[in-house]
C-alpha cells in the first residue's frame, strides 16, 4: 500500500532531488515553459504553485522564502511580477501538456509545463 507517500523520489538522493526541482522551478519562472518528464513536471508544479500563491502577498517574509527556493534574483523579481497578474486567480497557475515525444535514452514520455496566461 502507498498510504502517506507525499512526493516522488525521481531516482535521486534527497539533496540532489531538491536541487533539480529548484532548478526546474527557476527555469519555469524565467522562461514561462519548459520541457521535462511527466514525474518531474508534476513535482515542480507543486513548488511553483505554492511560490506564486505566497508571492501574492508581497512582504519581506515571502521574498526571503522565494530567495531560499529559487536560484536566481531575476527569477524572484519575475515571480512577484507574475503574482500581480494572478491576483484574481484562485490557483492552477501551471498547465501540463503531454507531447508525442519520448526521451531517447530510456523512452520516458516528455511533457511541456507552462505558466497559464490569462
From TrEMBL:
<comment type="subunit">
    <text>Part of the 50S ribosomal subunit. Contacts protein L32.</text>
</comment>
<dbReference type="GO" id="GO:0015934">
    <property type="term" value="C:large ribosomal subunit"/>
</dbReference>
<keyword id="KW-0687">Ribonucleoprotein</keyword>
<dbReference type="GO" id="GO:0003735">
    <property type="term" value="F:structural constituent of ribosome"/>
</dbReference>
<dbReference type="Pfam" id="PF01196">
    <property type="entry name" value="Ribosomal_L17"/>
</dbReference>
<protein>
    <recommendedName>
        <fullName>Large ribosomal subunit protein bL17</fullName>
    </recommendedName>
</protein>
<keyword id="KW-0689">Ribosomal protein</keyword>
<dbReference type="InterPro" id="IPR036373">
    <property type="entry name" value="Ribosomal_bL17_sf"/>
</dbReference>
<dbReference type="GO" id="GO:0006412">
    <property type="term" value="P:translation"/>
</dbReference>
<comment type="similarity">
    <text>Belongs to the bacterial ribosomal protein bL17 family.</text>
</comment>
<dbReference type="InterPro" id="IPR047859">
    <property type="entry name" value="Ribosomal_bL17_CS"/>
</dbReference>
<dbReference type="InterPro" id="IPR000456">
    <property type="entry name" value="Ribosomal_bL17"/>
</dbReference>
Amino acid at each position: 500500500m502507498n498510504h502517506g507517500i507525499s512526493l516522488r523520489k525521481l531516482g535521486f538522493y534527497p539533496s540532489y532531488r531538491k536541487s533539480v526541482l529548484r532548478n526546474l522551478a527557476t527555469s519555469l519562472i524565467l522562461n514561462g515553459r519548459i520541457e521535462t518528464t511527466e514525474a518531474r513536471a508534476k513535482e515542480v508544479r507543486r513548488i511553483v504553485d505554492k511560490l506564486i500563491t505566497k508571492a501574492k502577498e508581497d512582504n519581506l517574509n515571502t521574498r526571503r522564502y522565494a530567495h531560499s527556493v529559487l536560484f536566481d534574483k531575476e527569477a524572484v523579481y519575475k515571480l512577484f511580477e507574475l503574482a500581480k497578474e494572478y491576483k484574481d486567480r484562485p490557483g492552477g497557475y501551471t498547465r501540463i501538456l503531454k507531447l508525442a515525444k519520448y526521451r531517447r535514452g530510456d523512452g520516458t514520455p516528455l511533457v511541456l509545463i507552462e505558466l497559464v496566461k490569462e
